[in-house]
Amino acid sequence: MTPKLRRFLDEVRPSTPCLVVDLDVVEANYRALATALDGVEIFYAIKANPAPEILTRLVALGSSFDAASVPEIEQVLAAGAGPARISYGSTIKKEADIARAFELGVRLFAFDSEAELSKIARAAPGARVFCRILTNGEGADWPLSRKFGCTPKMAKDLLARAATLDVVPWGVSFHVGSQQKNPKAWDSALAEAASLFRELEAIGVELGMVNLGGGFPTPYRSDVPEIGAYAHEIMEAVRRHFGNRLPFLIAEPGRGLVGNAGVIQTEVVLIAEKGDADGRRWVYLDIGKFGGLAETMDEAIQYPIHSHRKGAPVPVILAGPTCDSADVLYERAPYTLPADLAIGDRLEIEATGAYTTTYSTVGFNGFEPLRSYYI
């Protein structure tokens, strides 16, 4: 909680639930990552938080952008970025959307299947393409395996196939999992990428780029390594596997740039006991899974939650306000709140700048989308 956030919440007293983001923290995170990963071009993952205020700040800082859809591309262009600073990084795109992105000037596209490659070749002739390979996501709180990526063997065949089409086979990408706590997690993926570079070069296909993906964490309830530790391990792995022929490197941070810049303020709607053997009190908030806290699914992302009360901490179960039994935030994780917590109190859920407003429903149970403020 920065002083600026605290002052805004205390002076403005916005209606809850709401997200407030300190843009200066976003800028500081960007500068720290860009400095640590010297020589790596930063492509902000827009999906983490596409607020115009964030995009405009990052454009001014020189960031490039990883887009998952045409609307995200249009948002970045409206914020002042040129199309050369945009990668269409989703591997699942309608052909019409590929054509629209190409029309808007985007020339860098991801794929992980022959069907997707064929769509790009038809709709975006001459574009650069990169193939995403599978990783296991070990060490990440929010793994991103299986749905995206193909085996390295298939990637070799697809990139060789790309060389016969009206596109430019440009590189390899991977993602080691969101909220990755192990700085060494990039090593094996970089080894696979380097092997692909060599194997393809042997058959006359020269690649030029490696996309390191995201995965850079934000601190939640436990500490995470400093960004310098990640940069050191990544660059050491790049040099180890590629030697003196270093590829053009890009990275796609999302959570690591905006996560710790935001705080959600929420109101306690109900405190109830169930009369069961568990004995814990249920604390119901005016925000839940459907209001922006979707990443509490399986209790994967555990946000710090604070109260201004000073009573002794007692164990609680935390849930959202909707009439859906899945709207329970934390039941297994050991959360405590003050014994003198009262209905109507406000709580702060910290490190919520990423993947909250965009996960909020349009109006499930009639609850409006999560309001947000950027200061």
TrEMBL record:
Record-linked Gene3D superfamilies: Alanine racemase (3.20.20.10), Lyase, Ornithine Decarboxylase, Chain A, domain 1 (2.40.37.10)
Keywords for the protein's UniProt record, in alphabetical order: Lyase, Pyridoxal phosphate
Necessary cofactors: pyridoxal 5'-phosphate
Domain called Orn/DAP/Arg decarboxylase 2 N-terminal: residue spans: 25-258
Catalytic activity: L-ornithine + H(+) = putrescine + CO2
Lyase is among the record's keywords: yes
Pfam families documented for this protein: Orn_Arg_deC_N
Chain coiled-coil ranges: none
PANTHER family given in the database record: ARGININE/DIAMINOPIMELATE/ORNITHINE DECARBOXYLASE, ORNITHINE DECARBOXYLASE 1-RELATED
Similarity section: Belongs to the Orn/Lys/Arg decarboxylase class-II family.
Protein name: ornithine decarboxylase
Lineage of origin: Bacteria, Pseudomonadati, Pseudomonadota, Alphaproteobacteria, Geminicoccales
